Amino acid sequence: MSLRAATLVSVGDVEALLAQLETQRLTAESVREQLGARLKMGLTTVAPAAPSSSSRSAGASSSSSSKATQTGSVAAMLGEIEVSIRDVKAAIRELEAEKEKLGAARVAAQTAKDADKKRRAPAPATPPGTKLGKFTVPAWIRGRSPALLVATKDGEAVQTIDLAKKDCFVLGRQAELCDVTLDHASVSRQHAVLIHGAPPPAEIAGGAAAPAHLLASSSSSS
Fold it and tell me: Are 170 and 179 in contact (CB under 8 A)?
């Protein structure tokens, strides 16, 4: 019995089939015990007919032949049961392996789903005063504007960042210190930080308010 071509879409399907096979195995083993007991006892003794001098020899021969026939029949049935038990056990082993694979696949899928959910989830708010390398998060940081930051190279987009996922993003050359890596000689390791919020007018060049503000590093060589 081969289950390789079977369509088993869930662990529940496999467990249901395993339960059926286990019932078949127990039934077959019960029948095997009964047949084995019959063979061991030499089958049921046939009651002898009334003895007579003329028929005793023929009756004994007939009884012996009948017993041999019954013994051969029971032995054949026992052989078939043994084959059936062997096939059921092989099927159970195959299904157990399939169940293990499906279980591992389900765990892997859930792990990937959780990781993706975590990756997509917005980052927690950044408290004012938090040090981001050389930058300090200002007191006016608040909210998150729905916007995308698209990084391009030679006129082609190479990276797109959802700015609503965090309230501040560090831009620079060193990947370990930055949310957005800018690989260019003119860019410092921590070149600038993009912060959601509205700084006081005195801090805004030209006095124009904006939902997000870019704080630049004082030195581009660091």
Answer: yes
